Structure formats: structure tokens, C-alpha cells
Amino acid sequence: MTTKASIVPACAICLAAAFTVSLPQPARAQQVTPPRVPNEIRVPPGNEAFLKGHGVGTQNYICLPSDDGFQFKLFTPEATLFDGLRKQIITHFFSPNPVEDGKIRVTWQHSTDTSIVWGGTAIPSTDPKFVAEDAIAWLLVPKAGVEVGPTGGGTLTAVTFIQRVNTSGGVAPPEECAGLNDLGKEKFVPYEADYFFYRKN
User: Fold this and answer.
1) What confidence score (pLDDT) does residue 21 get?
2) Which of 107, 128, 143, 177 has the fewest Cβ atoms nearer than 10 Å?
3) Distance between CA 109 and CA 117 in Å, rounded?
4) Residue 50 region by backbone torsions, left for phi larger than 0, else alpha for psi between -120 and 50, else beta
């Protein structure tokens, strides 16, 4: 016969087991395989890919004078990066880099912990074996500065290099910036790309 005394311990064990199962499991590190890229934008040895995001947004241009007439100049990208589950992880834009006394640099800011990495001078590749003719260049971007988030978040402070690959779109139409009448014209060109973030091994 089941007694009240034996039921209580049994229920306690069941509740403990259920509670243990319901506890959040430790987050697993994202496994990131580096992309195949042209030699000129390979990341130096001693670095490993640890974060990947698919960027969707626009390359924003303004028509300005150039050495040979007029040309669209990039004044900022505006993009959101998503992980493999289509969850927003990073925003991408231009902003002042405090490490370089406010120099405007390409910027990536983590959407959760708000840590930031600024990129330095990019190394481009338009190798036709990799880059579509109607797409913006692939890039290797070294770190130029980092900043922790206001609550100490530091996901992007470990970044050493960023690669922009698998680009589509984003090229400004040159015929729309050809003379004085076009001066100051802005063009927001849709694009997509994959971004790989590296840190030291």
C-alpha cells in the first residue's frame, strides 16, 4: 500500500528532475568555417573565425567631384547582420572611432551587448573568380579600434579582422553621377553580403 509518507519524497524527486530539465543550457560556441577567398584578402595565420553574419541593407553614396569628373562616393553603409536563425546580431554603419581621435570608420555594433569594432583601411578584391561583376568588392578589414558596451559586453572587442564576402548588389550606377546637375545626388543601393569576424587563436 502506498502511504502519504512515501508519496511526498517521490513528488519532490519528480519536481527536482523537472526543474533541472527546464534550466537553461549553457550556450554553445558557434562553429564558423572560414570562407574560400582570393589570396589578397586571406586572414593572416594566428587568427580564427568565431562569428558570422549575413548582412542585408544599402550602400549609401553621394555624387561628388573627382579627379576625372564626377563620381559616387560611399558615405555610409546601413545594414543589419543576421545569424543562421535569422536573428539580428549586429548593425553596420560609419561612425567616429575614438581610438583615432574621431576619425570616421566603418563600424559594427553588437545588437545585444552593444560592443563595437571599428575597421581600418580595407584591402579589396574584385577577382572575377569570386566576385560578381555587378557586386561590390570583397574585403579584408583589419581592426582599428574596439569598445565595450555600457554594461561590460565585449563580444566584438576580441575582433582582429573582418571579411566581407559573397556580395551581391551595392554598386552605384555611374551614369547617374556624370555632371554638375548630379552634384550632391544621393543613391541608396541595396546589397547583401556575408561577414566573418576573426580573433586571435
Assistant:
1) 37
2) 128
3) 7
4) alpha
For the purposes of burial, counting CB atoms within 10 Å of the CB of 126, is it exposed (0-12), middle (13-18) or buried (19 or more)? middle
The pTM assigned to this predicted structure is 0.84
The mean pLDDT of the chain is 89
Q: Is residue 146 part of a domain?
A: yes
Whether 22 has a pLDDT exceeding 90, the answer reads no
Q: Residue 44: pLDDT above 80? A: yes
Nearest CA among 121, 136, 28, 27 for reference residue 72: 136
In this structure, how many other beta carbons lie within 10 angstroms of the beta carbon of residue 119?
Answer: 23
Q: Using the 8-state DSSP alphabet, how is residue 39 labeled?
A: G
The DSSP line for 120-189 is: -S-EEE--TTTS-TTSPPEEEEEEEEEE--TT---GGGGEEEEEEEEEEE----GGGS-SGGGTT-EEEE
Please tell me the total count of domains within the chain. 1
Domain around 119: 39-200
